[in-house]
Amino acid sequence: MKTIKENTKNEIMIKNSRFITLLYKIRSKEEIEQYLEQVKKLCPKATHYCYAYKIGENIKKASDDGEPGGTAGMPMLNVLDKEDITNVLAITIRYFGGIKLGAGGLIRAYSKSVKETLNKINTIELIEGMKCKLTFPYVKEKEITKQIPEKNILSKTYLEKITYIALLTKDSELLQSEEIEQIEKTYIEKETIN
To answer: 180 has which bridge partners?
Structure first.
């Protein structure tokens, strides 16, 4: 399984219709609404804002946003599945150009738009991991931070003790510690070794 290295954008024209695909790297469903609202503000005159997303293996959804049922969102999601891409939100904005494409034409257009956008970027391999809550005394902070890459620490809270919400690989020694509470299974970007 893999994800995109960075957010990206691509545009294609098909029979006078503009299809702009935006790919966003995501970790949770909460981010989806924010990106959709942002895109609708940036492109207020678009005809459709179709999307598909996939998080982990099993969380996925597709929306045709007014296009005939099954002609936009599902073809987009099928491309993500076929390419084994996850933790990504694909939004394809369509500006209708006056020529109807028909169901088959729409399926091909939305699939092509996502496929071409994916071809423009690099991907990162994902490995199985665990989202965890670690609570520990202040004296252990240096020791703990040495074992977790900064980008895998989602939040830090400093009260009587320190609490991190972090992503750990399934072979992390920290998973054996008594200071940990496992929240949910997830996927983590594989570290690149220089």
So the answer is: 134
**Which of the listed residues 61, 87, 121 is the one where a domain comes to its end?**
121
Residues 41 and 89 in one domain: yes
- Phi, psi of 155, deg, nearest 5: -155, 155
Please, what is the average pLDDT of the chain?
91
Same domain, 110 and 25: yes
Q: How confident is the model over 99-108, as pLDDT tens digits?
A: 999 999 999 9
Residue 31, domain extent: 2-121
Q: Judge if 159 and 175 occupy the same domain.
A: yes
Give the model confidence (pLDDT) of 140-169 as tens digits. 999 888 988 888 898 999 999 999 999 898
144-150's contacts with Cβ under 8 Å and 24+ in sequence apart are: 144/174, 147/172, 147/173, 147/174, 148/172, 148/174, 149/191
* pTM as predicted: 0.80
Residues found in the chain: 194
